[in-house]
Amino acid sequence: MVTRLDAKLFDAMTEITWCAGCGDFAILRALKLALAELGIEPYQALVVSGIGCGSKLPDYMHVNAYLTNHGRPIPVATAAKLANPDLHVIATSGDGDSYGIGGNHFVQSCRRNPDITQIVENNQIYGLTKGQYSPTSEKGFVTTTSPDGAIERAFNPMSVAIAAGATFVSRAFAGEPKHLAGIIAQAIQHRGYALVDVLQPCVTFNRTNTYDWYRQRVYHLEDEGYDPSDREAAWQKAHEWEERIPLGVLYRAEGMPPYEDQVKTLMGGSPVSRLEDLVKDPRPQQYEPLKERFT
Ligand code: SF4
Fold first, then answer.
1. Ligand 1 centroid vs 244 CA: distance in angstroms?
2. Nearest CA to ligand 1 atom 5
3. Sign of the C-alpha dihedral, residues 201, 204, 205, 211?
4. What distance in Å separates the CA atoms of residue 270 and residue 231, rounded to the nearest whole number?
5. Are 123 and 55 spatial neighbours (Cβ–Cβ below 8 Å)?
6. What's the rounded Cα separation, in Å, for the pair 252 and 226?
7. Helix (H, G, I), strand (E, B), or coil: what is residue 292?
8. Is the CB of residue 93 below 6 angstroms from any atom belonging to ligand 1?
9. 81 vs 259: CA distance, rounded Å
10. Quick count: other Cβ atoms within 10 Å of Cβ 150?
11. 267 C-alpha vs ligand 1 centroid, how far in Å?
């Protein structure tokens, strides 16, 4: 039985430097709520981030945290999960970090299926560096680096994730923190890679995709009797954007074994669980020949 915790357990003393009204506040709140709801204590979770406004998030929580290089939260999160499968590992960063600089890690995770959760703060712009267009910016979006409008079409993370084999693909909105917390909780509970793409208004640099812009378009899949196990239906929903934007779990495949369950060398126990044995029995006979070979 799960014992719910007080979300205040995750509060940190760090001063928050996000702009007033930034959607990242809701994501921070929602992640704390989800962890508390699931009874996950701060020592049982690891939050990994990259570079960008949203990547400051782990610094604002009382939890194990790792702020890594631009675009690299996924490899660090995957490695941590391999080393200690008992940890609940969550990677979080913006659309530029996740889908641009870290785009290949995103795609490979979809097919690799490590048991980690990726929360993408998708504000369709680079906020920290003061407003350049990002992978998810709309074609024609005018920014400092696209004065004539972005030439490329926007990256669609939902369809890419489904096509690449992700087993949990979801979308939420920072303007609805309770719904967002519920989606994050489902993602954390999912055994395998889980994507939560969060529509996160950047109130300072994106004056197009505002809270109102989203409120006029978003709707909840769960209100329409939608079946997230239907991959064909998910593919259709992944392409809805202009008029209506679906929120909720677009696709969920149950029973696919996570990556770490299939790594033979981990079947005798995780590195963390074997630490004590290794300290007691460092097996120098295995290392000496290697040392000789490489020195
Ligand atoms: Fe948030 Fe945008 Fe301000 Fe960054 S620049 S803190 S994304 S509102």
1. 25
2. 127
3. positive
4. 33
5. no
6. 12
7. helix
8. no
9. 10
10. 20
11. 43
19 lines ligand 1 (CB under 6 A): yes
Model's pTM, two decimal places? Answer: 0.93
Q: Does any ligand 1 atom lie closer than 6 A to the CB of residue 123?
A: yes
Nearest CA to ligand 1 atom 6: 18
**Cβ neighbours of 155 (radius 10 Å):** 18
Residue 95 CB–ligand 1 contact under 6 Å:
no
Q: What is the DSSP string of 76-117?
A: HHHHHHHH-TTSEEEEEEEHIIIIIITHHHHHHHHHH--S-E
Q: Record the tokens describing residue 145, joined without a space.
A: 């680096």
Q: How far is the CA of 169 from the centre of ligand 1 (A)?
A: 25
CA of 20 to the centre of ligand 1 (A): 8
**Residuewise pLDDT in 10s, the chain (295 residues):** 889 999 999 999 999 999 999 999 999 999 999 999 999 999 999 999 999 999 999 999 999 999 999 999 999 999 999 999 999 999 999 999 999 999 999 999 999 999 999 999 999 999 999 999 999 999 999 999 999 999 999 999 999 999 999 999 999 999 999 999 999 999 999 999 999 999 999 999 999 999 999 999 999 999 999 999 999 999 999 999 989 999 999 999 999 999 999 999 888 888 888 877 766 666 666 667 767 777 7
Asked whether 203 lines ligand 1 (CB < 6 A), one says yes
Residue-wise DSSP of 8-73: GGGB--SPP-SPTT-THHHHHHHHHHHHHHTT--GGGEEEEE-SSSGGGGGGGBSSEEEE-STT-H
How far apart, in whole angstroms, are the C-alpha atoms of residue 149 and residue 175? Answer: 27
